[in-house]
Write a structure and sequence with these properties.
Layout lengths: L1 H6 L2 E2 H5 L6 H13 L3 E6 L2 E6 L1 H33 L1
Antiparallel strand pairs: 1-3, 2-3
């Protein structure tokens, strides 16, 4: 994901450069991300170029932000409860 975010659309060859992962392993990860709607692959000649689906990433970011705020609220209530119990 980081490479796709930083470098725009990339082939599997470019995505695996300098990594200790096989192309086959990275391809499996790409398919999972594509099935989740977070990336999209398009054919260019004999290779596929993969790119981020920013709209879906925004949806995921929004959801994770909501969950983070909920956990922050719950942890604050727990901290308040624990502090009161000590007094």
């Amino acid at each position: 994901m980081a490479r796709l975010c930083d470098g725009g659309p990339q082939s599997i060859v470019r995505l695996t450069e300098g990594m200790d992962l096989t192309r086959q392993g990275v391809t499996k990860h790409l398919r999972v991300l594509a099935d989740a709607g977070l990336i999209r692959g398009t054919r260019r000649g004999r290779e596929s170029l993969w790119k981020i689906e920013s709209r879906q990433l925004d949806v995921a970011r929004s959801y994770l932000g909501l969950m983070s705020r909920r956990w922050d609220e719950r942890l604050a209530r727990l901290e308040k409860h624990v502090t009161r119990s000590r007094e």
